[in-house]
Amino acid sequence: MSCEFLSDEWFAKVEELRAAAGDIEAPAALADLVINITIGTDGGEKQMALVGGMLEQGHHADAPTTMILPADLAKRIFIEGDQSAGMQGFMSGQIRVEGDMSKLMALQTAQPTGAQVELMKKIQEITA
Prior knowledge:
This protein has six helices and five strands. The chain is of the alpha+beta class and 128 residues long.
């Protein structure tokens, strides 16, 4: 069953998959990283956060960085794992950053663990 990216149903399914995966250790570069992500959609803004390498619904009050981008680009970066889309989006002005931009550098260099890759494959499978 596919769920529309960023829908409440999608966030619930992602949380369910994360819980089923158990305690997934993040690479050291991502372990303490918290980045808020504001995504522009046709229906308004959606908020999520990247916390320790995992996607969560909503923003975190203690995040030093917020990334703002359109939904299609967010899907390519966070669901499809297209790192070049992130660089292109930043260079073209589709991605705006508020706060500590240096925190985003950790995203470029960190390699996901095998367990994270497996979880992301499952999230891709349920994302429409």
